[in-house]
Automatic annotation (TrEMBL):
UniProt-listed Gene3D superfamilies: 1.10.8.60, 3.40.50.2300, Homeodomain-like (1.10.10.60), P-loop containing nucleotide triphosphate hydrolases (3.40.50.300)
Designated name of the protein: Two-component system, NtrC family, response regulator
Naturally occurring in which organism (per UniProt): Desulfonauticus submarinus
Residue ranges constituting the Sigma-54 factor interaction domain according to the UniProt record: 143-372
GO-annotated cellular components: cytoplasm
Keyword match Transcription regulation: yes
Domain Response regulatory: 4-118
Major subcellular location class: cytoplasm
SMART domains, alphabetized: AAA, REC
């Protein structure tokens, strides 16, 4: 078993013995008889486990333990003590020691305890790595986009993340509401706590109540054991309630009480349990309209809507599509061990003109389909699904982006000018080819170029 153990003992014979025993097990050992020097060594070196004697001059094992727990909380500490000092070892355990060994101890006992401590240390290191990976994965820098609307979202996210305020995220399905919720959590002081998510539409009201608040044993048929709910599991972190607009009136009342009192009661229980959570909710419904219809409590709406973040649909941030496509291509190629692929400019243009009713989620699915099915590293228009390259759909998407109030004649002229400029660029300014692309004669094209004063 690999690992680095620091042994601290003013008796040099014990240092030599422990070093020899652990080295035979493939464990790297540093033995130091000076506890102050050992603390300096910890500052400068990678150590997995500390084994320290209890009674030493200048600094005791208890002093070492307190220092390690304060500055290196992920490193387990094993206390060695003489038979007559067991009470001190027990006290050290209460203060956070991993285990203790009573001198004289057997070789087998030493090796067993040290290996257990190394296993624990490795698991702690993996947990730290996983949490850091999650922070990196869901940090706001991974919200892709340069459009003004998405930058507004990111600016608001940055301002609200450090607070404890409840956040309501609005947006159509597929716009990335859970991604923003996770970015809020992992950009906040609660990032080391749990992020617990639940979709309020996925369960019927009775099951949802049990999932949210937990239940006591025997509270209903099938409740064979006491179960903690999502509020308790999220304590110290963030609870994300997706599709909040689907809550039943009964659960709305209970949720309101939790927000007011910061306490919950399990189903079938009478004890109030305090919970420390940051609540983030999301919905694709217009909650104001739901309040007016009587489907959603007005007092709960105002409790939830402390800070509102509205995510734009993809059709309103089309300049972000090339960035999103590049991000998804890299991600999908890496996940599937494929050589890096790319979309041709023509294919990207089709993707940028499409309406994307399913928003970013639909775009990711289309990109994945194209990347996986394409036999070439270059993905062209012919590789796109039919709904994306359908001309009627493309035209409808473009028209939908136009304002409702406009001067028809002026707008048609602007569209005509833009189409002529695009055709000229695509044909490398060869007028015959540009005219063919537009389905008009070269003379008519020349007339239009003069009319719109197009220079090239």
């Amino acid at each position: 078993m690999k690992g680095h153990v620091l042994v601290i003992d003013d008796e040099k014979n014990y240092l030599l013995l422990l070093e020899a025993l652990l080295n035979e097990e493939g464990i790297e050992v540093t033995g130091l008889s000076d506890p102050e020097m050992a603390l300096d060594f910890l500052e400068e070196s990678e150590v997995d486990v500390v084994v320290t004697d209890m009674k030493m001059p200048r600094l005791s094992g208890q002093d070492i333990l307190e220092k390690v727990k304060k500055d290196f909380p992920h490193i387990p500490v094993i206390i060695m003590t003489a038979f007559g000092s067991i009470d001190g070892a027990v006290e050290a355990m209460r203060c956070g020691a991993f285990d203790y060994l009573t001198k004289p101890f057997s070789n087998e006992e030493l090796i067993l305890v040290v290996k257990r401590a190394l296993n624990f240390a490795h698991m702690e290191q993996e947990n730290v790595f996983l949490k850091e990976s999650l922070v990196q994965k869901y940090a706001k820098k991974h919200v892709i986009g340069k459009s003004k609307k998405i930058q507004t979202v990111l600016h608001l996210l940055e301002k609200v993340a450090p607070s404890k305020s409840t956040v309501l995220i609005l947006g159509e399905s597929g716009t990335g509401k859970e991604l923003i919720a996770r970015a809020l959590h992992y950009s906040s002081p609660r990032s080391k706590g749990p992020f617990v998510a639940i979709n309020c539409m996925a369960l019927n009201p009775a099951l949802l109540e049990s999932e949210l608040f937990g239940h006591e044993k025997g509270s209903f048929t099938g409740a064979v054991a006491t179960k903690k709910g999502k509020f308790e599991l999220a304590s110290g972190g963030t609870l994300f309630l997706d599709e909040i607009g689907e809550l039943s009136p009964e659960i709305q009342v209970k949720l309101l009480r939790v927000l007011q009192e910061r306490k919950i009661e399990r189903v079938g229980g009478t004890k109030s349990i305090p919970v420390d959570i940051r609540l983030v909710c999301a919905t694709n419904k217009n909650l104001k309209q739901e309040v007016e219809k009587g489907n959603f409590r007005e007092d709960l709406y105002y409790r939830l809507n402390v800070v509102e973040i509205e995510l734009p649909p993809l059709r309103e941030r089309k300049e972000d599509i090339p960035l999103l496509v590049a991000y998804f291509v890299n991600k999908i190629c890496e996940q599937n061990s494929l050589p890096l692929k790319h979309f041709t400019p023509e294919a990207l243009e089709y993707l940028s003109l499409y309406d994307w009713p399913g928003n970013v989620r639909q775009l990711e699915n289309v990109v994945e389909r194209c990347v996986v099915l394409s036999s070439s590293e270059q993905i062209g228009v012919e590789d796109l699904p039919s709904e994306v390259k359908d001309e009627e759909t493309q035209l409808k998407s473009a028209v939908d982006l136009l304002p409702l109030r406009l001067n028809l004649a002026e707008t048609l002229e602007k569209i005509e000018e833009a189409l002529i400029k695009r055709a000229l660029v695509k044909s490398n300014f060869v007028q015959v080819k540009a005219a063919e692309m537009l389905g008009i004669s070269k003379s008519l094209l020349q007339y239009k170029i003069k009319k719109y004063n197009i220079s090239f």
